[in-house]
Input
Amino acid sequence: MKRITFYLDFISPYAWLAFERLPEALEGLSYSVEYRPVLLGALLQQSGNPGPVGIPPKRDWTYRHVSWLGHSLGIPLQMPARHPFNPLPLLRQALACSADGSVNRFVAGTLLRHVWVGGHDALDSARLDALAEALAPQLKPEMEPQGPAVKALLRSNTDAAAAHGVFGVPAFGVDDKLFWGLDSLPMLRAWLEGDAWFGSGWGASAQVPSGLGA
Output
């Protein structure tokens, strides 16, 4: 059985779409998934990437694209009332349900639906209270969303993701490979199925010399 690490930040609509698509994309294969919340903004900053919302025309396209993808895939997705927003309260709420930095599918799904279903404000105080109540049975002893242990888990998750080459979410780590984005799910499946392309294509594809600065 292969073990997949699913790196996600609840601010990402593509993470929500990938979360919903994953079971179907990998249907029939033997695998387990470890969901790891990370701070996307920190990963983007480390790689000097402003992200799609940092480029106004790309922001508009991204919101249209994910709304279309939700429609075409039959996945409920309504843009929240404000986006982007500070995801730290949601990331910390999730990691208060963790002893080791990973969360179960119920916790990850609850947080993602909170943001991406209904078109509401993700940081509305009443909704955050309802979210905390829904996740209360999942809380780990001594783990408080604003406590130092939870904050340390988020830093550790994000630093470990960066060390493994994660530059955005969703990303999927398995064996020594990293797959990025919703559209990488077929490629992830091919790796799990033992596609022969990976024997040479994976390494060779990244060896093309850069034509910049020559």
